[in-house]
Amino acid sequence: MNRIRLTLLCLVVGCTAAFAQTSREELLSHIELTTANYANYPAPTGHLTPAPAGYEPFYISHYGRHGARYMTSDKHYRRLCKQLDSALTLGILSEYGKNVRGRILAASADAKDRAGLLTALGGRQHEAIARRMFDNYPTLFSKPITVEANSSTSRRVIRSMEFFCGELAKLNPELNISTRVKESEQYYIKSNKEIPVPDSSTDDELYHKLKKFKQKMLSGEPQMAALFTDPEKAKTFIDPFVFADDLYNAASDMYCLPELNIRLDDVFGEEGMIDGFRAYNASWCLWEGLMPGAKQSYLRIYPLLQNFLDEADAMIASGESGVRLRFGHDSIVLPFAFVLGFPEAIGATDDMEDLHHHFTIFRLIPMAANIQLVFFRKPKSKDILVKFLMNENETSVPIPTDCYPYYHWSDVSRYYRGIIKSSGIDHAMLVHPEEE
Which of 138, 119, 133 lies closest to 164 in space, CA to CA? Predict the structure, then answer.
């Protein structure tokens, strides 16, 4: 039996890892994916493997990123508007540059006083995810169960929680839904900065490599040549790399605001947008400590893992049914997927030129990204099964199973608690004093 379980595990990991690879052809056929962590939430495959005979869902444990948003700062627009205005005054803005300036001014005006706020699309994304969750598990949501939700203190995250829970309430008004935002719970909703992370001897070298790689991918030279009649004069007050980076962020955020009918990716063209994606794909991989040799900042996500484990055990022990929703940020979803061992999040390389063939953030942290653990039980059995969903698609974890995509909770809990214990993190940092 163990041999069968291990064979199944190897097959599943191999297939999913192959799926995680990204080709140039895929990006060219879905150019919106080149916006990296700005990418809009993709429709899930819709394939959910039926549970083994007799098992019914009784608990869902979830962590989700906020939906589509405005850029978190107006710094990109401020720089772009100032620089393009200066070029216009100097008479070095090309006709195409004047056209781009008009679009930048319109997008900037719409974004005024809205930095970081959820867009209308962001609300719709969470409503759709809630609706699919409801439809996928009708036997669970047909009951007057408790749905408990909390979020980070960010306004866009709170609004995402409200849209999600509001949709569930419409679908079944008898659900007992509670929402909260508590400062005392941020230690697991966000990265816990109090957890010490050992320095890496190669971290500085990796950041130096990343800087050079980003400057290569977003050199700004094609944009300078296209937007200015005298690029050399423009360079006296414009840093080409920063200029390209600002334009890439603005172009990416336009996908979060489809109602504006403004597009800016023509400033880069298809190849330029792919280069921008590769720059930010490498950045996120290094920032979150997922790249070989990087500082292991993902250790600060362990309180969230502890919370998932403890709350699941409490629900199982209670014999009741319910739904647990947590809402936060991409900077948590990404390392949490890595900590859980999802094939989509592992296998990164420090070869930044080749990284996107092995690790792609649009599969992991598009707007409204989420991780769900769905629990199943059957009458007169103590065996609890759980399956893992990455953005609503079934995925695997590095634990042997004889019923993939389902895993025995006893194996899952033992495995992850062992990881936490081996980390050496003080238990007091994993569990808030109020919860002791």
Answer: 133
DSSP per-residue codes, 321-338: -EEEEEEE-HHHHHHHHH
At 105-162, the pLDDT tens digits run 999 999 999 999 999 999 999 999 999 999 999 999 999 999 999 999 999 999 999 9
- Give Rg (Cα) of the chain: 23
User: How many angstroms separate the Cα of 266 from the Cα of each of 100, 103, 386?
Assistant: 9, 12, 45
Q: Which amino acid is at 131?
A: R
> What size, in residues, is the chain?
436
Mapped onto helix, strand or coil, the DSSP state of residue 183 is helix
Give the pLDDT mean for 48-57.
97
Tell me the backbone φ, ψ of residue 146, rounded to 5 degrees. -90, 130
**Residue 176 neighbours by CB under 8 Å, 6+ apart:** 144, 145, 146, 147
* Integer Cα distance of 277 and 37 in angstroms: 9
Q: Which two tokens stand for residue 411?
A: 């194996």
User: DSSP assignment, residue 150?
Assistant: E
This prediction has a pTM of 0.94
- pLDDT at position 29: 83
264: confidence class by pLDDT, cuts 50, 70, 90: very high
Burial class of residue 267 in the structure, from the number of CB atoms within 10 Å of its CB (0-12 exposed, 13-18 middle, 19+ buried)? buried
- Two tokens, residue 72: 């978190």
Query: Does the pLDDT of residue 223 top 60, yes or no?
Result: yes
CA gap 398, 396 in Å, rounded:
7
Neighbours of 32 (CB within 10 A): 16
pLDDT in tens, 275-303: 999 999 999 999 999 999 999 999 999 99
Q: Tell me the C-alpha distance between 402 and 12, whole Å.
A: 12
SS3 367: coil
Q: Strand runs (DSSP E) across 319-413, as ranges?
A: 322-328, 370-377, 385-390, 393-395, 406-408
CA angle 178, 180, 186 (to 5 degrees): 140
